[in-house]
Write a structure and sequence with these properties.
By secondary structure, this protein is of the alpha+beta class. The protein has three domains: 5-126, no CATH class; 175-264, Signal transduction histidine kinase, dimerisation/phosphotransfer (DHp) domain (Helix Hairpins, Orthogonal Bundle), CATH 1.10.287.130; 265-412, Histidine kinase-like ATPase, C-terminal domain (Heat Shock Protein 90, 2-Layer Sandwich). The chain has twelve helices and twelve strands. It is rod-shaped, with a radius of gyration of 47 Å.
């Protein structure tokens, strides 16, 4: 929230409104004080003149005429006059009495005779009213600009939601914002980019589907032809080759879904033995070959994973372990919540980060020096499920560890 543009703009406008309010109050207050000082000085001069008139025999009519020439108005509002009753001099027998009274940010002149009294004053509200109008206009402009700016950047929230949907794989989004400003231009450019990306994805999907279809057709025909061979050994070998090719095409389709982030995870609890059985099926290994090539866990464990793609990752790990082992069997063990695959082999010549790059290959080494797409596929699959792959070499063995994949709480022991 601290880094939010909306919060910063709101804080800026609040400071502007508070500052404008404080300045307006200070300005009006100073103007009232200044006006009071000027009026008090002026009324003091009026009072001195009235005293001179009284001294030289002037009566109340002359005084009223003098005050009328000065444009002083007689206040006749009974509510105002009630507040000045306390300032009257009681039992005034003769003559004329005049005094200055300061009350409610204004100065008044009270003229009293034995028979009556009158209150004079000047109304300077017109000048203050103009100040109030200017202050109101200033506040209105600030609030109007605030609303205008907020309305201009409000579409950013919609744009952010649409971009988040797009990042999560939802391709059918629309980011058009009908504003003739930078935000509207940004939204339109992003919408154009989305349309182009969708068009490229559609063409890529069409291309891959066409290739897979064209590949599967000869594989199917070859499989049918192989079934017609009389020699059982050749027949089995050819059928296994075509089955392997078909599995590879399905793997490529799965990898394409992962790389394009179009794969929908379906994580459930699966037994490790069930996952390994699917892996061995993908590797076209029978029960005898499994016993000959692997050391498997004695117990059975539960993994909360997506079966199809976790089997793909473990299959590639086991396939690499078989391909590059120097001796002995490949070990599949469980330690705590980690699944570890071990094989006797020299240490990897590169870091796991380098080997995770697609099509990584050491050109200076022999064919066994690189893992091609294998580690890249494994890393992509594990990243999709929020899992982590670690590697270390110890005691002449390579150890590939899938971290925290086993549900430690549920362990099923074989009897």
């Amino acid at each position: 929230m601290i880094n939010s543009i909306f919060v910063k703009i709101i804080i800026l406008f609040v400071i502007a409104i508070v500052g404008l309010g404080a300045f307006s109050y200070y300005f009006v207050h100073k103007e009232i004080e200044k006006e009071m000082q000027v009026n008090q000085l002026k009324y003091t001069q009026f009072l001195a003149t009235i005293h001179q008139l009284v001294r030289f025999g002037g009566d109340v009519d002359l005084i009223e005429k003098y005050l009328d020439e000065l444009d002083l108005e007689i206040i006749k509002d009974s509510k105002i006059l009630e507040d000045f009753q306390m300032y009257l001099t009681p039992y005034l027998d003769n003559g004329v009495l005049a005094k200055i009274i300061k009350k409610k940010n204004n100065v008044y002149l009270l003229v009293q005779t034995p028979g009556e009294w009158k209150l004079y004053g000047e109304f300077h509200m017109n000048k203050l009213f103009n100040y109030y109008i200017l202050i109101f206009v200033a506040f209105f402009i600030v609030v109007f600009l605030f609303v205008l700016v907020i309305r201009s950047i409000l579409p950013l929230k919609t744009l952010r939601k649409e971009i988040r949907k797009f990042a999560n794989g939802q391709m059918d989004i629309s980011c058009k914002i009908y504003q003739n400003n930078e935000i509207g231009e940004l939204a339109r450019e992003f919408d154009n980019a989305v349309q182009k990306i969708n068009a490229l994805n559609e063409s890529r999907h069409l291309f891959l589907r066409a290739i897979m279809h064209e590949l599967k057709t000869p594989i199917t025909k070859g499989r049918i032809t192989a079934e017609m061979i009389d020699n059982a050994m050749y027949k089995e070998r050819l059928c296994s080759v075509f089955e392997r090719l078909n599995l590879l095409i399905n793997e490529f389709a799965k990898i394409e879904e992962l790389s394009s982030r179009n794969y929908c995870l379906n994580k459930q609890d699966y037994q490790l033995s069930e996952i390994l059985n699917q892996v061995f099926t993908m590797l076209l290994l029978d029960k005898g070959q499994v016993e000959e090539l692997f050391v498997l866990p004695k117990g059975d464990f539960i993994l909360y994973v997506d079966l199809e793609i976790i089997a793909l990752a473990i299959k590639n790990l086991i396939d690499n372990a078989l391909k590059y082992k120097s001796k002995g069997k490949v070990e599949v063990i469980v330690e705590g919540r980690d699944l570890i695959i071990k094989n006797y082999a020299p240490p990897l010549p590169y870091s796991l980060k380098d080997l995770s790059k697609p099509f990584f290959k050491d050109k200076e080494s022999d064919q066994r020096g690189g893992l091609g797409l294998g580690i890249y596929i494994i890393q992509s699959v594990l990243d999709t499920q929020g899992l982590e792959l670690e590697y270390f070499h110890w005691n002449n063995k390579n150890n590939f560890i899938i971290k925290s994949v086993v549900s430690q709480e549920i362990v099923l022991k074989r009897k």
